[in-house]
């Protein structure tokens, strides 16, 4: 007689054990003391999407982010779980041929509508980005207050697209973001025990340098980057390319790695496609036939996480349930692509070329083109001169460009790197988005033991004054 309740209890416990494994059924309160830790709520998917640039010539970064937002919403993520950082100066920019609309591919639909303005304008900054990752509302300045308020079972997806350079990522505001600080924040997030796994997709020039030799295993983080540590990443759907944007667009619509992962995700059932399958496919498309116009997609961190399905991070659009992954890239590779660093010149040139002779638009475009060019020459020449002043003619040029063996971080002393960059900018003006390409030279100076005083003296000699172009303004760059 007494045995029935016991059998019943055992059966109930077995059901509860398997339920606990599924992680979403709650235990009846009387039974919960048998299980440590108690079962928790279903995992939540969180995302941070960030475009690190502004300016119409950088249309593609904010366009990428808007596209990513639409993708995640179609996948089933809630608006409250997606934190968006974008300067928001594109949709209603006077250069935009379709006011209020942003597209991410030549025949693409509007991706701007409905994107939340969590952090726009100057609220797109390093401090708020870190606060959002850490879920620390009291560290925020401005913005909607949305942060990744995640729990131990949750999955986090971070997607960053912008210009970069060795060891740094751009921001529309000053200062830029240093790799070492980002890695510290990720370690802190891990230590707080507020996620199960985190996937980081990163598009920027030299983006491999953000994680190489820096991101340890064991943080449950899997990262892929658009490029290795020593090459550019590429804009795509640019004027003059095939496929090209509609003729009225004088700017690139997307970035090659970014549109590769998003267009793949748009098509497939992400319940069955793994991160690794996507990595292989994106790698193949981004290398672009191994020619001049492509880069090497890299992976870092806990590689075994890439066996997970994309569904865990991106959800999946129910309309794609019947489109399972095929190991072949059906997407058209671009005929060529534009080096991210030259995409601003492509914009100014296209604008200049198309403007009617004698129009004020032509005059403005010419001025913009010349300013961008002269900034580049100023930065390149100043760096060369600083190298020579510090190390002599031969050793100087070697130190400017030497690259550490693969697997090693860019620099050992990140504070030195920050100090030398700041010192240079004080005398020579902002590096701005183009000048980030010289970060490796600064890192090499640090690795060779150059001190702030030496840098100050060399910079003062190399740069008699700060040029008056907007690119050199100290409101851009690292100083702040
Ligand atoms: C959150 O940010 C504030 C302000 O920067 C800081 O004082 C505090 O320690 C942070 N909290 C956590 C849990 O890191
Ligand atoms: C997928 O295929 C099944 C069987 O053919 C069909 O019933 C279902 O409607 C399809 N789903 C979608 C989203 O097209």
UniProtKB/TrEMBL annotation:
The highest taxon in the source lineage is Eukaryota
Q: Which terms are listed as keywords in the entry?
A: Disulfide bond, Glycoprotein, Hydrolase, Protease, Signal, Thiol protease
PANTHER family reported for this sequence: HEMOGLOBINASE FAMILY MEMBER (PTHR12000), LEGUMAIN PROTEIN-RELATED (PTHR12000:SF52)
Its recorded name reads Legumain prodomain domain-containing protein
- Give any single GO term for biological process: proteolysis
Legumain prodomain domain ranges (all copies)? 367-463
Q: Where is the signal peptide?
A: 1-19
Recorded family membership:
Belongs to the peptidase C13 family.
Q: Name one GO molecular function term.
A: cysteine-type endopeptidase activity
Give the matching InterPro entries.
AE (IPR043577), Legum_prodom (IPR048501), Legumain_prodom_sf (IPR046427), Peptidase_C13 (IPR001096)
Q: Which residues form the active site?
A: 163, 205 (nucleophile)
Q: Which Pfam families match?
A: Legum_prodom, Peptidase_C13
């Amino acid at each position: 007689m007494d045995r029935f309740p016991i059998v019943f209890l055992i059966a109930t416990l077995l059901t509860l054990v398997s339920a606990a494994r599924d992680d979403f059924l709650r235990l009846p309160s009387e039974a919960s003391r048998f299980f440590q830790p108690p079962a928790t709520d279903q995992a939540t998917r969180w995302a941070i999407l960030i475009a690190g640039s502004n300016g119409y010539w950088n249309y593609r970064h904010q366009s990428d982010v808007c596209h990513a937002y639409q993708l995640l919403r179609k996948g089933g993520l809630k608006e409250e779980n997606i934190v968006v950082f974008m300067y928001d100066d594109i949709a209603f920019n006077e250069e935009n041929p379709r006011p209020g609309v942003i597209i991410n591919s030549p025949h693409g639909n509007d991706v701007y509508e409905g994107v939340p303005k969590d952090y726009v304008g100057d609220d797109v900054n390093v401090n708020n980005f870190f606060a959002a990752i850490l879920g620390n509302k009291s560290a925020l300045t401005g913005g909607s207050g949305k942060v990744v308020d995640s729990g131990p079972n949750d999955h986090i997806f971070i997607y960053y697209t912008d210009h970069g350079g060795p060891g740094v990522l751009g921001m529309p505001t000053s200062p830029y973001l240093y790799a070492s600080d980002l890695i510290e924040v990720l370690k802190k997030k891990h230590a707080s025990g507020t996620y199960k796994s985190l996937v980081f997709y990163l598009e920027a020039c030299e983006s491999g340098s953000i994680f190489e030799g820096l991101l340890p295993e064991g943080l449950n983080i899997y990262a892929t980057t658009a490029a290795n540590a020593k090459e550019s990443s590429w804009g795509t759907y640019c004027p003059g390319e095939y496929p090209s944007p509609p003729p009225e667009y004088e700017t690139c619509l997307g970035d090659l790695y970014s549109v590769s992962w998003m267009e793949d995700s748009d098509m497939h059932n992400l319940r069955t496609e793994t991160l690794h399958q996507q990595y292989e496919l994106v790698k193949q498309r981004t290398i672009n036939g191994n020619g001049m116009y492509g880069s090497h997609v890299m992976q870092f961190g806990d590689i075994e996480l890439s066996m997970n399905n994309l569904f865990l991070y991106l959800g999946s659009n129910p309309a794609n349930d019947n489109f399972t992954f095929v190991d072949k890239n059906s997407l058209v590779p671009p005929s060529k692509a534009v080096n991210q660093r030259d995409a601003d010149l492509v914009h100014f040139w296209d604008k200049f070329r198309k403007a009617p002779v004698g129009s004020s638009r032509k005059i403005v475009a010419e001025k913009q083109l010349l300013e961008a060019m002269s900034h580049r020459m100023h930065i390149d020449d100043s760096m060369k001169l600083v190298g020579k002043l510090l190390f002599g003619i031969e050793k100087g040029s070697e130190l400017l460009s030497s690259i550490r063996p693969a697997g090693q971080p860019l620099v050992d002393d990140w504070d030195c790197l920050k100090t030398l960059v700041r010192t240079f900018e004080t005398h020579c003006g902002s590096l701005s988005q183009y000048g980030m390409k010289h970060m490796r030279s600064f890192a090499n100076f640090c690795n060779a033991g150059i001190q702030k005083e030496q840098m100050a003296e060399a910079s003062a000699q190399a740069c008699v004054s700060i040029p008056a172009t907007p690119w050199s303004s100290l409101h851009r760059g690292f100083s702040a």
